[in-house]
């Protein structure tokens, strides 16, 4: 296992910035995660509360210290929280990780998700030495699939009954991005 040190300065691409999460982000996380679309496609619980947001941050801090997750807040130029992106389930033996993200309703439709994925993947390849990053999107979540493809991920397979979602087993589209194909 390797230690993960998040960058001191935000990662930047146009109007999209990635920075470490802060405790004062709890109200913004709470408001964003009350959006039914986030709960629909992620493990975010319905009726999201500030306690859920604090638990989200605590889990992220613990996973960062354990070297298994590199979590970032996606923010605007004005530092408004727009969403979340992370490298998670980092497998140091095989130099691979999974990425996942969500965007608040007010952050969608401006290219932030695509830029955030590009930023975190480039950082993961260069700063962490990863060789492969995977992304999984529900077959019904065409918006996430389009974001993955715009960020350079290659569609590799449909994994039947791969994840248990709120409505039972879900088929997921598996995507991969290789360091040799980044940039």
Q: How would you describe the overall organization of this protein?
A:
- This protein has 183 residues and is an alpha+beta fold.
- The two termini are 26 Å apart.
- The protein has five helices and eight strands, in the order E-E-H-H-H-E-E-E-H-E-H-E-E.
- The model has no long low-confidence stretch (mean pLDDT 92).
- The protein has an eight-stranded mixed sheet, sandwiched between helices.
- It has helices at 26-33, 36-41, 50-66, 112-127, 142-150, and strands spanning 11-13, 16-19, 70-75, 81-91, 96-103, 132-138, 154-165, 168-178.
- It has a domain at 11-129: Gcn5-related N-acetyltransferase (GNAT) (Aminopeptidase, 3-Layer(aba) Sandwich).
- It is globular, with a radius of gyration of 15 Å.
The overall pLDDT, averaged over residues, is: 92
Q: How do the strands line up in the largest sheet?
A: 1-2-3-4-5-6-8-7
What's the Cα radius of gyration?
Answer: 15 Å
CATH topology of the domain at 11-129: Aminopeptidase
C-alpha geometry: globular
Number of helices: 5
The major beta sheet can be summarized as: 8 strands, mixed
Strand content: 25-35%
Helix content: 25-40%
C-alpha end-to-end distance = 26 Å
Number of strands: 8
CATH homologous superfamily classification of the domain at 11-129: Gcn5-related N-acetyltransferase (GNAT)
Question: Low-confidence segments, ≥5 residues, pLDDT <50?
Answer: none
Structural class: alpha+beta
Along the chain, the helix and strand elements come as EEHHHEEEHEHEE
Which architecture name of the domain at 11-129 does CATH use? 3-Layer(aba) Sandwich
> Given this structure, which CATH class of the domain at 11-129 is correct?
Alpha Beta
């Amino acid at each position: 296992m390797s230690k993960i040190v998040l960058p001191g300065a935000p990662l930047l691409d146009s109007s999209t910035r990635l920075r470490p999460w802060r405790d004062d982000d709890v109200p913004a996380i709470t408001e964003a995660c009350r959006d039914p679309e986030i709960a629909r496609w992620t493990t975010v619980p319905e009726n999201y509360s500030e306690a859920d947001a604090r638990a989200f941050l605590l889990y992220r801090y613990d996973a960062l210290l354990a070297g298994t997750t590199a979590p970032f807040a996606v923010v605007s130029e004005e530092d408004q929280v727009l969403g979340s992106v992370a490298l998670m389930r980092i497998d140091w033996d095989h130099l691979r990780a999974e990425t996942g993200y969500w965007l608040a309703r007010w952050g969608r439709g401006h290219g932030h998700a695509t830029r955030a994925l590009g930023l975190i993947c480039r950082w993961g390849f260069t700063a962490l030495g990863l060789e492969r990053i995977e992304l999984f999107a529900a077959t019904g979540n065409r918006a996430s699939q389009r974001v993955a493809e715009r960020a350079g991920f290659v569609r590799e397979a449909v994994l039947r009954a791969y994840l248990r979602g709120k409505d039972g087993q879900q088929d997921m589209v598996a995507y991969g991005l290789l360091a040799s194909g980044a940039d």
